[in-house]
Amino acid sequence: GCPGRLRMGHLLCTLILLQAAGVLVLMFYALLWEAGNVVSLPEKRIGFYNFCLWNETAGELQCLQYRHLQVMGISLPGIVLARVCVYSCLVFGIFYPLFVAHVNSVWITPFFSAALLLVGLLLFLSQIWNWISVSDLSCAFLALVFSLILQALTAFRCCTVHDKKKKNQVQLLKVYKLVLK
């Protein structure tokens, strides 16, 4: 009866909050601890804020300025838009508990966050793909991908629960109307 549903609801809320915490940890690791570097190798470091390649003459990594990136065909507006999309997901993750507490549609936050992260990653990869290979991608990139998966799962789970609640409310409303007749 009711106590079982109550326990199941608490379990579901706990699971959703644990997923949100996992997303936050992964995002903090990738974007703050690893500074957003999706490639972090001795001969190249490429991230949302830097593009460094090995300079044979100097014998060290050389971080390129925008004018050099522009010559290489990398778009500054594309990089900036990718950066805004990806880092806004971190903000969504930080404020997710507030959204849960004050917004009835809990699935909206992880859905938009996952969409922004996906767009940001794809936009960024489209800009740098000519200078990397799949094996170059770092643990920070994997953390962002796992974060994306967790956000999508959270959005799906919340949306499913929301749909079930909506169906139950509609059924309750029908019963209520029958009782009033």
Automatic annotation (TrEMBL):
Q: Does the keyword Nucleus apply?
A: no
Q: Does the keyword Transmembrane helix apply?
A: yes
Protein origin, superkingdom? Eukaryota
Q: Which InterPro entries match?
A: TM140
Keywords of the record: Membrane, Transmembrane, Transmembrane helix
List where this protein forms a coiled coil. Answer: none
Transmembrane regions: 12-32, 74-99, 106-129, 141-159
| Pfam families xref list | TM140
Q: What is this protein called?
A: Transmembrane protein 140
Organism of this sequence? Nothoprocta perdicaria (Chilean tinamou)
